């Protein structure tokens, strides 16, 4: 087990070696480490080698300009200057929060950015301002729209963080595909099949082969086929794509220039990076803050205390498992997968930073 | 087949007999008829008897006050005064549009309202102002959260309407449950089973019995079980519930006082009606309107022209089938189901309005 601070310091050092300022390196490390703590390790340190490769390939700059291209009292468009999402996204979320202070709500679309870690990190930033936070982003095209033979949309996550009063906040943070690409990678590395209904092969036929994403296959939309509401999953993932990328002018859907080696690049697409969308809403924008907090406490308790099906302990409030995991891992330490370990060793070698393999 | 104008006039007369002004009766008829035209007949004239019953039971007023309780430059809370959603919702959407004109975006939460027809109607109202429209509402508690034995959430629809340039708009309008309650009613009336994975019985066990909602059963969330992302569907439906009802102070989740006879009422719940949430965003809030429209045209064409799986004609852009249906039914007429016909005959009898059974 690694201690939080050991992994944090190592990650900060890597980002500093890439040329980030100390402050920005700490910010970037905080985002990846938050994913580790919250047990969303698919978006944690396992991604560090991807960031390093993007930097080696000169696809990202580590000192990006943050340009507000256009704005209204409650909105702004930001050009992230081909910077790491981990640098640009925190600033964009702050801008949404600042807008909300005066306009009640703030909404910021970002283009020319790259992978930003867990969406929930930014949504949760709103909580400390007594605001609701919303985050969306588009990603590598791996999800097949209903009736499409190929993957055209990202796993496009949404995060919504909502403060409560005495209860901890409601924090939903989920890929809009039924599983994330990271989960399928884990099935593959463990030699397991993926549950039925989640994947299709390069002809659009159902498959459980966990290596299929590397072989022209795609994830299906949330719901699966039409009879089970898969077209609603297509709508949802599309809305995230449009809010993130069409609002901002980033590359949308299949025109996203992949950061994954095994996703086919559409030759000739202009690269405006991926897009993000951030929202902040003051909790007193509709009722008083006290009424809102009392309402959320009541909502959370009502669902947490609901009668569960036999064999299950309770209905899980979004954010509960991740918060428990944070407390546990801060105390007991963080275990890394073999893939993460190999990646960190590799990165340590590139930058000549010591990394202790436990 | 009935002509559009015959059914519109009949519906307007019913609302006038209930005491609505001519203008509001026409507005209400327009919403229900739009559902018929768009082939969302589960939210069309089949609902008219439900509205009449709510009025007979004195649960709704037909001359509600529309009170703005609280506001910021981009938001407002409206108390709908226990009015029909068909009267209150159009005004609330207009308020969101007015807010967006100056603040860039406008967001209105409504409490003390009732069923408002198809969510898409209001979202589409934004299109004529070169705005994106968003609508949510909560509804009768029929959807079981992941691990819950009972239905606690509504089928809580979301609609998002996004203008394009030369292409028709993107209009997604969907219950966040895998199927709507109306669809299960249709399976039941046709004596058909409901596809596997969509329903659970009064112990939370899977069932295909289409009468189960009347017998203590519930709909499952979009995705189904955890392995297929059902907890994401739970998050999504919860977010709609919170935005619609906790933001506004309406009755949330299982505390919604049912409008369906077969949903158990939670004794003693204070009745603040159901809640809606409306959003309007200027398309030039992020980029110029011209850039936005060009981007949406490109998005729509990219997906419409994608290679389909064998046996399917093309990927369907949200809104395409409904728009085609509108054109067809305006020209060829509207067929009513036996349930709709019986309901309209009944309503005609109550108000002594002629209704011709074809």
Question: How would you characterize the overall build of this protein?
Answer:
The structure is a homodimer of 358-residue chains. With 358 residues, chain A is an alpha+beta fold. The first copy, chain A, has three domains: 1-58 and 320-358, Hypothetical Oxidoreductase Yiak, Chain: A, domain 1 (Orthogonal Bundle), CATH 1.10.1530.10; 63-177 and 223-285, Malate/L-lactate/L-sulpholactate dehydrogenase, NADPH binding domain (Ribosomal Protein S8, Chain: A, domain 1); 179-219, Wheat Germ Agglutinin (Isolectin 2), domain 1 (2-Layer Sandwich), CATH 3.30.60.50. Helices cover 37% and strands 16% of the residues of chain A. The first copy, chain A, is built from ten helices and ten strands. Chain A has helices at 4-17, 22-37, 48-56, 85-103, 119-125, 181-189, 230-246, 289-304, 320-332, 338-351; strands at residues 67-72, 75-83, 105-113, 131-137, 157-162, 170-175, 199-200, 206-207, 218-219, 274-282. In chain A, the strands form two sheets. In chain A, strands 1-2-3-10-4-5-6 form a seven-stranded mixed β-sheet, with helices on both faces. In chain A, strand 7 and strand 8 form a beta hairpin. In chain A, helix 1 crosses helix 2 (22-37). In chain A, 57% of the residues are buried. Chains A and B meet through strand 1, strand 2, strand 3, strand 6 and helix 7 of A and strand 1, strand 2, strand 3, strand 6 and helix 7 of B.
């Amino acid at each position: 087990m690694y201690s939080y601070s050991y992994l944090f310091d190592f990650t900060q050092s890597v980002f500093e070696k890439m040329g980030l300022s100390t402050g920005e390196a700490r910010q970037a490390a905080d985002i990846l480490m938050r994913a580790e703590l919250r047990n969303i390790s698919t978006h944690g340190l396992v991604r560090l080698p991807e960031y390093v490769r993007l930097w080696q390939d000169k696809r990202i700059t580590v000192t990006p300009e943050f340009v507000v291209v256009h704005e209204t009292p409650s909105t702004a468009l930001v050009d992230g200057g081909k910077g790491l999402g981990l640098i640009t996204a925190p600033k964009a979320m702050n801008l949404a929060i600042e807008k909300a202070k005066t306009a009640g709500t703030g909404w910021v679309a970002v283009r020319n950015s790259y992978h930003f870690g867990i969406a929930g990190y930014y949504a949760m930033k709103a909580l400390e301002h007594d605001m609701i936070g919303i985050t969306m982003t588009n990603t590598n095209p791996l999800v097949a729209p209903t009736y499409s033979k190929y993957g055209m949309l990202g796993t496009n996550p949404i995060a919504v963080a909502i403060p409560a009063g005495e209860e901890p906040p409601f924090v939903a943070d989920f890929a809009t595909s039924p599983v994330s690409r990271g989960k399928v990678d884990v099935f593959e590395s463990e030699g397991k099949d993926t549950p039925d209904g989640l994947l299709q092969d390069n002809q659009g036929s159902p498959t459980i082969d966990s290596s299929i994403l590397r072989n022209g296959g795609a994830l299906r939309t949330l719901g699966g086929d039409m009879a089970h509401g898969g077209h609603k999953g297509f709508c949802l993932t599309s809305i995230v794509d449009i809010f993130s990328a069409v609002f901002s002018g980033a590359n949308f859907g299949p025109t996203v220039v992949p950061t994954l080696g095994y996703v086919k690049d559409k030759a000739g697409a202009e690269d405006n990076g991926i897009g993000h969308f951030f929202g902040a809403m003051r909790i007193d924008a509709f009722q008083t803050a006290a009424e809102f907090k009392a309402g959320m406490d009541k909502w959370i308790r009502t669902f947490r205390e609901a009668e569960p099906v036999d064999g299950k302990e309770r209905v899980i409030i979004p954010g509960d498992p991740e918060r428990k995991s944070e407390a546990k891992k801060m105390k007991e330490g963080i275990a890394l997968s073999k893939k993460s370990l190999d990646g960190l060793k590799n990165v340590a070698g590139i930058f000549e930073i010591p990394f202790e393999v436990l």
